[in-house]
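Example 3.2
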Amino acid sequence: MCDTGYIRMSYAQLQRVRLVHLVSGVDQDEPADGAGHATSTAIGGYTEWVSQGGLMITVGWDWQMLPQRGCALARASPPSSNLMLQDPAGDDLGPRKTALLLETFIDNFSWQPEALQYISIRYSN
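Structure, written as tokens:
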């Protein structure tokens, strides 16, 4: 069997991992040509988080700013990570199930304030 370089753990183990913010940024895509007319735009970007101590876990995802909710950030893509989650027997859950569980994990921790603060400082100059 070929080693894929994934860090393997159960979802219960993942829930005990403390992720810290590494970097966030705003996508620098050029706006579509509006031919001089007002157009609806969305601000989006990315964020990357890492574990502290022990195994180096990385988890990143894209976000979108929701102006109708006071400029709140919301996850806008499935996460990318070096994790492969396993079932209680130690068998890999596979990329799809791992991604779905990572989405649940991300959506249940408060990453938005720290990412928004970092973005505000990074782009204020």
